[in-house]
Write a structure and sequence with these properties.
single chain, mainly alpha, 0% strand, binds zinc ion
Length: 222
Protein backbone atom coordinates (compact mmCIF):
# COMPACT_ATOMS: atom_id res chain seq x y z
CA UNK A 1 0.00 0.00 0.00
CA UNK A 2 1.43 3.34 -1.03
CA UNK A 3 0.87 6.15 1.43
CA UNK A 4 0.88 8.94 -1.15
CA UNK A 5 1.44 9.10 -4.89
CA UNK A 6 3.50 12.28 -4.69
CA UNK A 7 5.90 10.92 -2.06
CA UNK A 8 6.11 7.26 -3.11
CA UNK A 9 9.43 5.72 -4.06
CA UNK A 10 9.68 3.56 -7.18
CA UNK A 11 9.80 -0.13 -6.21
CA UNK A 12 10.90 -3.03 -8.37
CA UNK A 13 7.56 -4.86 -8.15
CA UNK A 14 5.50 -1.90 -9.38
CA UNK A 15 3.84 -2.27 -12.78
CA UNK A 16 5.50 -0.53 -15.71
CA UNK A 17 2.67 1.97 -16.01
CA UNK A 18 2.88 2.94 -12.34
CA UNK A 19 6.66 3.35 -12.62
CA UNK A 20 6.06 5.61 -15.61
CA UNK A 21 3.56 7.75 -13.70
CA UNK A 22 5.93 8.08 -10.76
CA UNK A 23 8.75 9.23 -13.02
CA UNK A 24 6.47 11.84 -14.56
CA UNK A 25 5.46 13.47 -11.29
CA UNK A 26 7.72 16.48 -11.68
CA UNK A 27 6.57 17.08 -15.24
CA UNK A 28 2.97 16.96 -14.01
CA UNK A 29 3.63 19.45 -11.23
CA UNK A 30 5.00 21.96 -13.74
CA UNK A 31 2.23 21.58 -16.28
CA UNK A 32 -0.82 22.14 -14.09
CA UNK A 33 -2.11 25.34 -12.63
CA UNK A 34 0.33 26.69 -10.05
CA UNK A 35 -2.57 27.22 -7.67
CA UNK A 36 -3.69 23.60 -7.58
CA UNK A 37 -3.80 22.20 -4.06
CA UNK A 38 -2.05 18.88 -4.54
CA UNK A 39 -3.41 17.61 -1.26
CA UNK A 40 -6.79 17.38 -3.00
CA UNK A 41 -5.59 15.21 -5.89
CA UNK A 42 -3.78 12.50 -4.04
CA UNK A 43 -4.30 8.82 -3.67
CA UNK A 44 -7.82 7.93 -4.74
CA UNK A 45 -7.91 10.14 -7.82
CA UNK A 46 -4.57 8.98 -9.18
CA UNK A 47 -5.24 5.34 -8.35
CA UNK A 48 -8.51 5.52 -10.23
CA UNK A 49 -6.61 6.82 -13.25
CA UNK A 50 -3.97 4.11 -12.91
CA UNK A 51 -6.69 1.47 -12.90
CA UNK A 52 -8.29 3.00 -15.98
CA UNK A 53 -4.97 3.03 -17.81
CA UNK A 54 -4.22 -0.57 -16.88
CA UNK A 55 -7.45 -1.60 -18.53
CA UNK A 56 -7.32 -2.21 -22.25
CA UNK A 57 -8.40 1.07 -23.75
CA UNK A 58 -8.71 1.76 -27.45
CA UNK A 59 -6.59 4.87 -27.34
CA UNK A 60 -3.68 3.39 -25.40
CA UNK A 61 -1.42 2.92 -28.43
CA UNK A 62 -1.78 6.47 -29.70
CA UNK A 63 -0.51 7.81 -26.37
CA UNK A 64 2.02 5.29 -25.12
CA UNK A 65 4.12 3.90 -27.96
CA UNK A 66 7.80 3.18 -28.61
CA UNK A 67 9.76 6.45 -28.94
CA UNK A 68 6.97 8.46 -27.32
CA UNK A 69 7.97 11.69 -25.60
CA UNK A 70 6.94 11.36 -21.92
CA UNK A 71 5.79 14.93 -21.29
CA UNK A 72 3.75 14.89 -24.51
CA UNK A 73 2.16 11.55 -23.64
CA UNK A 74 1.31 12.71 -20.13
CA UNK A 75 -0.57 15.78 -21.35
CA UNK A 76 -2.26 13.69 -24.06
CA UNK A 77 -3.35 11.15 -21.47
CA UNK A 78 -4.76 13.92 -19.29
CA UNK A 79 -6.55 15.44 -22.28
CA UNK A 80 -8.16 12.16 -23.29
CA UNK A 81 -9.38 11.61 -19.74
CA UNK A 82 -10.56 15.26 -19.71
CA UNK A 83 -8.52 15.94 -16.57
CA UNK A 84 -6.68 19.07 -17.66
CA UNK A 85 -7.66 22.20 -15.76
CA UNK A 86 -9.76 23.76 -18.51
CA UNK A 87 -12.08 26.57 -17.48
CA UNK A 88 -15.28 24.54 -17.88
CA UNK A 89 -13.97 22.07 -15.31
CA UNK A 90 -12.71 24.76 -12.93
CA UNK A 91 -16.12 26.44 -13.08
CA UNK A 92 -17.80 23.12 -12.35
CA UNK A 93 -15.54 22.86 -9.31
CA UNK A 94 -16.91 26.19 -8.09
CA UNK A 95 -14.33 28.70 -9.29
CA UNK A 96 -15.64 31.98 -10.66
CA UNK A 97 -13.90 33.15 -13.80
CA UNK A 98 -14.28 34.29 -17.38
CA UNK A 99 -15.08 31.14 -19.37
CA UNK A 100 -13.88 32.30 -22.79
CA UNK A 101 -11.11 30.45 -24.58
CA UNK A 102 -7.95 32.47 -24.05
CA UNK A 103 -6.50 31.25 -27.35
CA UNK A 104 -9.22 32.44 -29.74
CA UNK A 105 -11.37 34.64 -27.49
CA UNK A 106 -14.57 32.90 -28.50
CA UNK A 107 -16.30 29.83 -27.17
CA UNK A 108 -16.25 28.15 -23.79
CA UNK A 109 -12.81 26.84 -22.92
CA UNK A 110 -13.30 23.10 -22.68
CA UNK A 111 -11.16 20.14 -23.71
CA UNK A 112 -13.25 19.65 -26.85
CA UNK A 113 -13.04 23.32 -27.81
CA UNK A 114 -9.37 23.83 -27.03
CA UNK A 115 -8.08 20.82 -28.97
CA UNK A 116 -10.69 20.42 -31.72
CA UNK A 117 -13.16 23.28 -32.22
CA UNK A 118 -10.89 26.27 -31.52
CA UNK A 119 -10.01 27.98 -34.84
CA UNK A 120 -6.38 28.40 -33.71
CA UNK A 121 -5.80 24.78 -32.79
CA UNK A 122 -7.75 23.60 -35.84
CA UNK A 123 -5.39 25.57 -38.05
CA UNK A 124 -2.39 24.04 -36.28
CA UNK A 125 -3.78 20.50 -36.56
CA UNK A 126 -4.66 20.92 -40.23
CA UNK A 127 -1.10 22.05 -40.94
CA UNK A 128 0.28 19.02 -39.10
CA UNK A 129 -2.05 16.64 -40.92
CA UNK A 130 -1.17 18.19 -44.25
CA UNK A 131 2.54 17.86 -43.48
CA UNK A 132 2.00 14.15 -42.79
CA UNK A 133 0.20 13.70 -46.10
CA UNK A 134 -3.34 13.46 -44.72
CA UNK A 135 -6.30 15.47 -45.95
CA UNK A 136 -7.69 17.95 -43.45
CA UNK A 137 -11.16 17.09 -42.18
CA UNK A 138 -13.31 19.12 -39.80
CA UNK A 139 -13.86 16.75 -36.89
CA UNK A 140 -14.96 17.27 -33.32
CA UNK A 141 -12.89 15.84 -30.47
CA UNK A 142 -14.60 12.44 -30.28
CA UNK A 143 -14.59 11.88 -34.03
CA UNK A 144 -10.96 12.96 -34.33
CA UNK A 145 -9.92 10.60 -31.56
CA UNK A 146 -11.76 7.74 -33.23
CA UNK A 147 -10.18 8.66 -36.58
CA UNK A 148 -6.72 8.56 -35.02
CA UNK A 149 -7.39 5.23 -33.29
CA UNK A 150 -8.61 3.74 -36.58
CA UNK A 151 -5.82 5.16 -38.75
CA UNK A 152 -2.74 5.08 -36.50
CA UNK A 153 -2.30 1.34 -36.69
CA UNK A 154 0.84 -0.58 -37.55
CA UNK A 155 4.42 0.54 -37.31
CA UNK A 156 4.99 2.44 -40.52
CA UNK A 157 7.08 5.58 -40.46
CA UNK A 158 4.03 7.68 -41.29
CA UNK A 159 2.11 6.22 -38.33
CA UNK A 160 5.02 6.77 -35.95
CA UNK A 161 5.43 10.36 -37.12
CA UNK A 162 1.74 11.19 -36.82
CA UNK A 163 1.57 9.64 -33.31
CA UNK A 164 4.45 11.87 -32.25
CA UNK A 165 2.90 14.88 -33.98
CA UNK A 166 -0.52 14.22 -32.38
CA UNK A 167 0.88 14.11 -28.84
CA UNK A 168 3.10 17.12 -29.60
CA UNK A 169 0.04 19.00 -30.90
CA UNK A 170 -1.88 18.41 -27.65
CA UNK A 171 1.15 19.39 -25.56
CA UNK A 172 1.90 22.62 -27.43
CA UNK A 173 -1.75 23.72 -27.60
CA UNK A 174 -1.97 23.21 -23.84
CA UNK A 175 1.33 25.05 -23.38
CA UNK A 176 0.05 27.90 -25.58
CA UNK A 177 -3.11 28.13 -23.48
CA UNK A 178 -0.98 28.33 -20.33
CA UNK A 179 1.41 30.88 -21.85
CA UNK A 180 -1.52 33.14 -22.73
CA UNK A 181 -3.27 32.60 -19.41
CA UNK A 182 -0.34 33.00 -17.04
CA UNK A 183 2.50 34.71 -18.91
CA UNK A 184 0.67 37.06 -21.24
CA UNK A 185 2.60 35.57 -24.16
CA UNK A 186 1.08 34.44 -27.43
CA UNK A 187 2.61 32.68 -30.38
CA UNK A 188 1.42 32.30 -33.96
CA UNK A 189 0.02 29.20 -35.64
CA UNK A 190 3.25 28.93 -37.65
CA UNK A 191 5.32 29.09 -34.47
CA UNK A 192 3.37 26.23 -32.85
CA UNK A 193 3.54 24.15 -36.02
CA UNK A 194 7.29 24.70 -36.14
CA UNK A 195 7.65 23.62 -32.50
CA UNK A 196 5.77 20.41 -33.32
CA UNK A 197 7.92 19.82 -36.39
CA UNK A 198 11.11 20.42 -34.45
CA UNK A 199 10.10 18.02 -31.67
CA UNK A 200 9.24 15.30 -34.16
CA UNK A 201 12.44 15.92 -36.11
CA UNK A 202 14.64 15.62 -33.01
CA UNK A 203 12.91 12.41 -31.97
CA UNK A 204 13.20 10.94 -35.45
CA UNK A 205 16.94 11.46 -35.51
CA UNK A 206 17.53 10.32 -31.94
CA UNK A 207 15.62 7.08 -32.61
CA UNK A 208 17.21 6.33 -35.95
CA UNK A 209 13.94 7.01 -37.73
CA UNK A 210 15.72 9.33 -40.11
CA UNK A 211 15.06 7.51 -43.34
CA UNK A 212 14.08 10.25 -45.73
CA UNK A 213 10.78 9.80 -47.48
CA UNK A 214 7.93 12.06 -48.55
CA UNK A 215 6.37 12.07 -45.08
CA UNK A 216 9.24 13.12 -42.87
CA UNK A 217 10.62 15.36 -45.58
CA UNK A 218 7.31 17.22 -45.64
CA UNK A 219 6.90 17.33 -41.87
CA UNK A 220 10.47 18.09 -40.88
CA UNK A 221 12.19 19.75 -43.77
CA UNK A 222 10.24 22.82 -44.71
ZN1 LIG B 1 -10.56 28.88 -28.78
Amino acid sequence: MIAGFWEAEVRAHFSWILKKFLKLREVARCMFLPSVDWNLVRDKWIWDKVRICRDKVRWHKIIWFPAHIPKFSLISWMAILDRLSTKDRLIRFGLTMDADCVVCGTGLESRDHLFADCPFSREVWNAVLSSCGFRSVMLNWDDRLNWLIDNLRGNSLRVRILKLAWTAFLYYIWEERNYRSFRGLSRSVDCIVNRIRESVKIKLYSHCMHRIDDVNRSLCIS
